[in-house]
Amino acid sequence: MRQFLVFVKKEFHHIFRDTRTMMILLGMPVIQIILFGFAITTEVKNAEIAVLDLSRDEATRKIIEAVEVSEYFHVAEYVHNTEDIDRIFRKGKIGLTIVFGENFYENLLHTGKAQIQLIADATDPNTATTLTNYATAIINNYQRQITGSNPAQYQIMPEVKLLYNPQMKGAYNFVPGVLGMILMLICAMMTSVAIVREKEMGTMEVLLVSPMKPIFIILSKAVPYFAISAVNLATVLLLAVYVLKVPVMGSIFWLILVSLLFIFVSLAIGIMISTLTSKQMFAYLISGMVFMIPVMLLSGMIYPVENMPAILQWISHIIPAKWYISAVKDLMIKGLGIQSVFKEITILLAMATVIIAFSVKKFKNRLE
Amino acid sequence: MKVITAENLTKKFGSFTAVDHISFEVEQGEIFGFLGANGAGKTTAMRMLCGLSKPTSGKGMVAGYDISKNPEKIKASIGYMSQKFSMYEDLKVWENIRLFAGIYGVPEKEIGHRTDELLRNLQFESQKDTFVKSLPLGWKQKLAFSVAIVHEPKIVFLDEPTGGVDPAARRQFWELIYQAADRGITVFVTTHYMDEAEYCNRVSIMVDGRIDALDTPRNLKDRFNASGMDDVFQRLARGAKRNSD
Fold first, then answer.
1. Residues of B in contact with A3 (CB under 8 A)
2. Residues B131 and B90 sit within 8 Å (Cβ to Cβ)
3. Lowest model confidence (mean pLDDT) among A177-191, A258-272, B1-15
4. Has the ipTM of the complex gone over 0.85?
5. Contact A311, A208 (CB under 8 A)
6. Considering only alpha carbons, which residue of chain A is nearest residue B47?
7. What is the mean pLDDT of chain A?
8. Which of A197, A213, A323, B198 sits a CA distance of 20 to 30 A from A220?
9. Cβ distance A157 to A122 under 8 Å?
10. Pick from B72, B88, B104: which is nearest to A10 by CB?
11. How confident is the model at residue B7 (pLDDT cuts 50, 70, 90)?
12. Of the candidates A18, A211, A367, which has its C-beta nearest B105's C-beta?
């Protein structure tokens, strides 16, 4: 046991003395959260829009007012004919134009149907969708107000209900993703590289000749990365809650427990990679190409898995991060109980068992 | 007292026989040179003696333990220094000493005292807090050797310990080896330098997995009527079938 502690201490020395790597490991989650949260957000604030109002009546005035006071839009231009719409879109500043048909209020009152058109600049489809969704929500809201005073008379337009993320906050979606990616990166990549480095430097040979048990050598490599991952988990959760205002809806206890399970799986992957190679470069490549990129693309962090071709969806099932991210979404954002992520937990546990069994077998073969 | 005995020790990898029925004995306190061209089977033989690799057939006893049955006991009674320089560059001198003392189970209260003694012996006290990466290679090797015997093992295995340093530094290194042997530590050393072979009490020369000669340097030179160990080695190695790599 004392051997083990002496060795863990040495591992901490390696990490703390490599200041640059240390800064990256601890700073990366902060930077990613801030980047995703504020810079690369699909969320819209004060987007410049234009209005073409052919009616200029009470209803259109109220809707425009509602649009203007919302934090999402700023009515930058009023245009007077349809040719102008094309012209302002070409300037590229305007993301959306709301067009009211003629006799809007009158039509609404008498026929119950009124024409409204939302024209969006879809060169950036994500923003276009967001803008039209916001605008639709505002229009629906107005409709509900007038229906209240004069019920069942007007046509109900299809309503878009945004479950769990009513303001369509981007943060809700990427916080679990960033967690999955960072934990995978630190545990799998850094652990595998740390073990392989000893092989490359020749120190592994000296350790294997020593009375230290090989399993302890490997475990003590994992301990510091486990600690750093725990710090990062705390950083990401604190930033998410206090800076991005993403609430933890469910049990924080289970959220942390599931995260620890995922850290364990990632460490196991790192150890597995280290048994496959004795070159640091190769360890970087395997963990980068085989584990990181699929985690980003197939885990539902950036693109929804549901929209992918069946074969990719099938592949995504073998990616641990996918199950972790799904569990975090349920626990943290939907506020569901632990019983709802039972499947995810079972799968992660099974993955850990298989990976560790494989690594132990491979490691023993290597020694001979 | 014999601390290493090998009887028909053999290691096969598939159809390739890396080590072919070697037999020898090493006395306690002896400096035993283990010579051979690259690919002759030195490293494989040494790995078996250190308990890292199981022999295909034959018997070996190291420090009183059977290498097939008790490799863990052997590991606790030997020291090892590899040809690749094997201290941690990002740890300080004293931290490396402490680390290996800890791994080899030197009692906690003795570590401080042994560290001081080791550094004093090397006249290296002023470098206690230096990072190993900023030491010259000759010093690193002397330090690595001292660390390999910090737990006072019965035997120390040195795998080409002096690669890449100048003759003066090698000479200093061998003074450390003599000191260790005087304290009763058996030294089992592989080397490429034939002047170093002259410093050994006895040397064995491996060719194609077999031990072709084993005697004191003086007797070997007499037998082959050679002026130096280099000459002896050349004559034996000329018969090698394997390509050196």
1. 102-103, 105
2. yes
3. A177-191
4. no
5. no
6. A209
7. 81
8. A323
9. no
10. B88
11. very high
12. A211
Interface test with A, best of B103, B104, B143, B159 (most A CBs within 10 A): B103
- Is the pLDDT at B225 greater than 70? The verdict is yes
Identify the CATH number of the domain defined by range B2-86+155-237: 3.40.50.300
Nearest CA to A355 out of A264, A281, A258 is that of: A264
Q: Which two tokens stand for residue A343?
A: 């499947």
Question: How many residues are given for chain A?
Answer: 368
Alpha-carbon distance of A260 to A267, in angstroms, equals: 10
Delimit the domains of chain B by residue range: 2-86+155-237
Under 8 Å between Cβ of B183 and B31: no
Measured CA distances, B149 to A27, A119, A206, A217, B128 (Å):
42, 80, 13, 21, 18
Q: Is the pLDDT of residue A161 over 70?
A: no
Alpha helices in B122-201 (DSSP H): 137-148, 167-182, 194-199
pLDDT score at B167: 86
Cβ-defined contact of A210 to B80 (cutoff 8 Å): yes
Write the single-letter amino acid at A261.
L
**pLDDT tens-digit series, residues A345-366:** 999 999 999 998 888 888 766 5
Which A positions 306-325 lie with beta carbon below 8 A of chain B? none
| Per-residue pLDDT band at A262 (split at 50, 70, 90) | very high
Please answer yes or no on whether A209 and B72 come within 8 Å at the CB atom: no
Whether the predicted pLDDT of B65 surpasses 90 = yes
pLDDT for residue B19: 92
Chain A residue numbers touching B84 (CB-CB < 8 A): 201-202, 205
pLDDT at A148: 62
Mutate one of A209, A220, A365, A368 to test the B interface: name it (highest B CB count within 10 A).
Answer: A209
Q: Are A60 and A105 in contact (CB under 8 A)?
A: yes
> Over 80: is that where the pLDDT of A166 sits?
no
Contact call for residues A269 and A320 (beta carbons, < 8 A): yes
Chain B residues touching residue A212 (CB < 8 angstroms): 103
How many interchain CB pairs under 8 A, A with B? 67
